[in-house]
Amino acid sequence: MKKGLKIVTIGGGSSYTPELVEGFIKRHHELPIKELWLVDIEEGKEKLEIVGAMAQRMVKAAGIECEVYLTLDRQKALKDADFVTTQLRVGHMEARIKDEMIPMKYGLIGQETNGAGGMLKAFRTIPVILEIVEEMKLFCPKAWLINFTNPAGMVTEAVLRYGMWEKVIGLCNVPIVAIKNESALLEKKESDLFFKFAGINHLHWHKIYQHDGQNITRQAINKLYGPDAKPEKIVANIKNMRFLHEQLTQLEMLPCPYHRYYYMTDAMIQEEIEEAQGEGTRGQVVKRLEESLFELYKDPNLDHKPVELEKRGGAYYSDAACEIINSIYNNKGTQMVVSTRNQGAISDLPAESAIEITSVITAHGAEPIHFGSFPPAQRGLLQLMKSMEELTIEAAVTGDYGTALQAFISNPLVQSGDSAKALLDELLDAHREYLPQFNR
Amino acid sequence: MKKGLKIVTIGGGSSYTPELVEGFIKRHHELPIKELWLVDIEEGKEKLEIVGAMAQRMVKAAGIECEVYLTLDRQKALKDADFVTTQLRVGHMEARIKDEMIPMKYGLIGQETNGAGGMLKAFRTIPVILEIVEEMKLFCPKAWLINFTNPAGMVTEAVLRYGMWEKVIGLCNVPIVAIKNESALLEKKESDLFFKFAGINHLHWHKIYQHDGQNITRQAINKLYGPDAKPEKIVANIKNMRFLHEQLTQLEMLPCPYHRYYYMTDAMIQEEIEEAQGEGTRGQVVKRLEESLFELYKDPNLDHKPVELEKRGGAYYSDAACEIINSIYNNKGTQMVVSTRNQGAISDLPAESAIEITSVITAHGAEPIHFGSFPPAQRGLLQLMKSMEELTIEAAVTGDYGTALQAFISNPLVQSGDSAKALLDELLDAHREYLPQFNR
Amino acid sequence: MKKGLKIVTIGGGSSYTPELVEGFIKRHHELPIKELWLVDIEEGKEKLEIVGAMAQRMVKAAGIECEVYLTLDRQKALKDADFVTTQLRVGHMEARIKDEMIPMKYGLIGQETNGAGGMLKAFRTIPVILEIVEEMKLFCPKAWLINFTNPAGMVTEAVLRYGMWEKVIGLCNVPIVAIKNESALLEKKESDLFFKFAGINHLHWHKIYQHDGQNITRQAINKLYGPDAKPEKIVANIKNMRFLHEQLTQLEMLPCPYHRYYYMTDAMIQEEIEEAQGEGTRGQVVKRLEESLFELYKDPNLDHKPVELEKRGGAYYSDAACEIINSIYNNKGTQMVVSTRNQGAISDLPAESAIEITSVITAHGAEPIHFGSFPPAQRGLLQLMKSMEELTIEAAVTGDYGTALQAFISNPLVQSGDSAKALLDELLDAHREYLPQFNR
Amino acid sequence: MKKGLKIVTIGGGSSYTPELVEGFIKRHHELPIKELWLVDIEEGKEKLEIVGAMAQRMVKAAGIECEVYLTLDRQKALKDADFVTTQLRVGHMEARIKDEMIPMKYGLIGQETNGAGGMLKAFRTIPVILEIVEEMKLFCPKAWLINFTNPAGMVTEAVLRYGMWEKVIGLCNVPIVAIKNESALLEKKESDLFFKFAGINHLHWHKIYQHDGQNITRQAINKLYGPDAKPEKIVANIKNMRFLHEQLTQLEMLPCPYHRYYYMTDAMIQEEIEEAQGEGTRGQVVKRLEESLFELYKDPNLDHKPVELEKRGGAYYSDAACEIINSIYNNKGTQMVVSTRNQGAISDLPAESAIEITSVITAHGAEPIHFGSFPPAQRGLLQLMKSMEELTIEAAVTGDYGTALQAFISNPLVQSGDSAKALLDELLDAHREYLPQFNR
């Protein structure tokens, strides 16, 4: 095994980068990274320089042997890479804000990864990721792609199905946050509980088992959502609204925070509209947050990740990416919840699909812990959403209008008929610049 | 094979009965029915007597050897039956009207077999059908059950899964009407085309093949829903609203009329509200229609099916039931679209499910023509709806509130969260009398 | 639909041709064939001329408007064909005799479609059929391929998987003979019974249902193989050896005659060896039969199919091919047992496999009547044999030695280890001339 | 979590017990066993006393707080147990020797877990294990059953399917030995390689991945079975015969040692016959080995596991059982290859089957690392063997003769037809005393 690893981070100018760098630093004794390449595009040059300089300070302060390179030349960066991470945002925060605002005009949820907004993000992002994959085939055919660009599940599936690239793992922080919060709530150490997650990105369920093998999911449901429950701490970017207790009792599994969009649609839209009228949409809030983060990063004396980064919503994300790389490199067998190919691990979904599932990360990549099949309440929604994802990915790749329309109609957070068509048309038009495939 | 068949029709006082009798008369040369038992309950006694007398006149006029019996004693009727048909309505037309009116208050579709109304109908009907199945086990264990009580698909699945009764076929006239209309539209004889249907009751798709093996579904889509299409003739009980042409082109299959509830939800609700404010809900219209039919049936000189019956919405239904019986009895191999057990004929749905599919009716019952799997646009909705059906059936059998709530939330025609709960509570209360399982 | 059909029969010089011609003649009122092209290769020229002249006499005697063409130019024949039938034998009867004799030296079964012989036949035949398919793509892309060349199941699967040609139906006379014999034995009309077959070519099972829907398979088992059973009449080319009654009772299905090779291997080998020492192998017997048939065909006064043809072993084959063509052309919905793509009709086998199953023949081709899954006793053998078929087909296409060896080891009628390798080597060598793919 | 664990070992008089005790001793710091109950039956009393006394000496020498109880009262032992291990042998070594000798008379393999012998062992063992499960339901309903009684896969499946007991894990040392030997051969640390096993007990395949994610299975095949390979070290109880290199190259997986019975049947039988004529059958050898082990155990000064035990053939078995218990108790996530319920982890086998697969052992038991589907060469044999197992288990439970016969005929190591029947009859007769279910 070669001694010094080369890591390439595409979208290196992201505000997340310091967490990633911190993650690499703290694992340096077992993960000997020699080169870290931060890559961005022309429009992101300024941010890349700010955050890149900070990364260089962090590495220097840590006193480890590792060079941080900044570049706009992606192909040069990819040459002989061992691991490539992607954390890019096509169209920047402005595109996100459109994804949030336009559906809201139609009385619909506007959100980065769910509903019409998530689909448009997929339309913009998937072609760029597939382009990167083609370059990886040429410049670093043995590298692993660790993606944490949203919509992470659809991106992973696109890489598998259309990119024909097997060495990919998709990553999301939602399960990590759930494990941390629920362990605390149950007053247990994380390592004493076994969490079994399965589903797709932003639409998964999980069960919890205790030390002696007992399934304690129902107790967790009662603690979290029962009559005496205290408000749950969840990921920063979605509202904490109490689930119906009778519904969760029937599910006998814990949903993910994003289930609120499907299980309490009306209340979520109303909340979102109020929020947009108050502090602004989540995109607008994050934009402000990022601006202040970059102000911090400019400080030439700052050489460690600032605590403010945790408010950004993606806490643990980058650290998890480091741990995946570490676990592959050292065949550690760490249990993590990641997006990977189904192959039948969830019997209810097509074998070629990407799913999000508790996996063991080995030298061979993500090995899903087998799940089997869901009861009907979970199954139907999951299958519907996967079919919506398939249509969305196909539309993103082909630019076919009918397929995009079908994807919209399939999405329970979008309406059907003429109103679906009007919304699709407006969104395609608003993002025209980033959707060449639809304008051919 | 015994010479004279005994047929039992439960809900014999229905306005459909004359079509059934006509169907038996015209097949008498190959289907030697000796006894036809029309069974109803106390509240239906008057209607049973009116329509029963008319049935007796019809048989007499036809000059065939067959006795028509009228009875309120179901068990006596079932004794040694060869075929049992069910066409009952628990709670009568009043219950249907509630199913239509209450959801409308919540801005939702109120319909006999779709949305909240269809689920309540299932809650009322399934326990009664399962009671009949238990009696069949005792009194006529070799008989076939031909069900055309709605929701026909869920009833069939309940009989298979919970009644543990294999000899059941569910029947609906929607595919029959489609075959007739589309053949006419394409200017072909029915026998020159091969129609391949698959899905579930009131949610199926089909393809059409021509004489030389060519798939002409796309031509049919264009003729029916293309820019120059003339308004399509569909089943009487749902509005004819034009599907989006781009959507159907992507589907490459023809949807069923009820797909309008899912593919153009808003427009359908608006239409329905207008209609309710005009001539009344469909239930109210049908109630008036039925009253005038029974006036006709009272005429002691009427001894044949009156043409007015066709407006009733269930045209061809009863005739199809006769043909199923005929095709089983004579191992004819007639192709019909029926509800039967999946066993893998549609790979996307559980093996134990009831599906609606083009089948060959043989001595062994309905043998589905294998379908395989759907593309994602059809697949997701179909799988969601099947999971909703499973939950609905389970709730109907167990009376479990959480399961009923989950069924509601799973249904795309019902909202989620608190509003789903409020609607469910109101409906359970309105139908309390017919839902003993929920009041235990 | 065009008025006059063009049929092309590849291997037209076969002794079966008169039955085919007879079949077309008797269906001429509904199947308007205008041109019948009999195609053969240089080595078969003489036979083609003899049987071709006879075909011309038959058509003339029948007084129908149809031209019979004889040619060695396959591509010319294929031009604009509507249906292509294949009944060829690569390497002629000499190759068959080698397939029979060589395995016998190793104490193994030597047979045309089972064991090592059948695999070698697949190695020789599949590349030729795939060549024909490529020509069909160019010269008659809308035609149907009706294959009755053995091994018919593997050939069909090769056409589907490697030829990427969907319009293919494989045909075998074994089920036809079983239906005829068992109906007679049960003293019923064929049309009064429903036979449900499923499996793969030469390895299928069936159930029988009676007029009133009752499963009478067990009665049939007792009549055929019970203590008082009279020897069963089966297809001419395999020995009639009594199955173990206890075994069939457990199966609750009727096996096909070829199951004897698997269910009573030792006895069959012994029988075969004795037979070879007596009248010669089946190939040798058939060779003599064919020679005397061709003597008959030379008679310029013979203008109808001679009764001697029925001894040939393929009785009903060609007639069934005519009926398939007729049923496609006229969308008749005839029930026939054919080889077609699985797509899930038998849940135990891969979706892309060819299976042999009761199907409805429509304008769209063979529509399998759904079967579902087998109990373990049938399932395991069926799955093993399908995997052996997959390996054999792959070896036939790629010429890969390891795959061929694996196919041999997978076959329960071949031994494993060094003896499998020795047998394979000897057979590849003996047929070297017809196996260019293995010599690259 | 309660402080002191109670472990019950059924078949406690086995010669393996010292390894088990050693395993518990060395894990005592994390696995606080307070009571170890060794249970045996009347006939095993003497051995129980010998080995039990030794176990007591070992515990005492280790200075840990743990009581070792010896008893013939199984129900008393089971009361409130936390873990139950089973290592029993119905009919003792004499029965094994019959299982080896009788098939050999028919020219067939005589072996403890494969072929006719393995099936008879299943017939004798399964009813006893199911009896234990029924007692566990009464006396220790929360306990885990760790089975290492052969045939371990069929026993596990019987417990799951017929015992309706989910908390069971089956264990075998074959994969452990393979991992150890192959790591050494490849000159790697075990922890640097990822071994992915899947299949069923004594019929599994595996792949090996290296540190950097590369699949090195082919290198391992070449090292083990290539032209320059040195003889491989395998489990003690089966002969080391070189696999065909071309075959393994095609498989692209490593087989298990028992595959020799299927991949080189003739050579194995010949070897076995020679061996039987020399030192005796494996059962006879083991019997002598055991006798000398018990002589050693009698030594009142012996208080640790003697090295001679490793020759016994079950090396690592008992230690692995300790590690499973440890990993469940401490939610350790250790990767082990165990028999557990499939649920779709191997797509080619029924969901309810027991499979043997690399799993993560957690608080929730064995969580299989998902495998997916096999290529045809592995798939067919695996499916055949699983169907044989299903039939064998069913016959063991029901005592149905036809099912037993079908199981025999399905087994590729048994012949078919009359000879299968004769062998079955002789074996049923020889073991009559232990097969009450067949004599009802």
TrEMBL record, chains A, B, C, D:
Keywords: Cobalt, Glycosidase, Hydrolase, Iron, Manganese, Metal-binding, NAD, Nickel. Its EC number is 3.2.1.86. Coiled coil: none annotated. SUPFAM superfamilies: LDH C-terminal domain-like, NAD(P)-binding Rossmann-fold domains. Substrate binds at R96, N150. Binds 1 NAD(+) per subunit. The record marks E112 as: Increases basicity of active site Tyr. Mn(2+) binds at C172, H202. It comes from the Bacteria. The keyword Ribonucleoprotein does not apply. GO terms for molecular function: 6-phospho-beta-glucosidase activity; metal ion binding; oxidoreductase activity, acting on the CH-OH group of donors, NAD or NADP as acceptor. Pfam families: Glyco_hydro_4, Glyco_hydro_4C. Belongs to the glycosyl hydrolase 4 family. This is 6-phospho-beta-glucosidase. It comes from Paenibacillus nuruki.
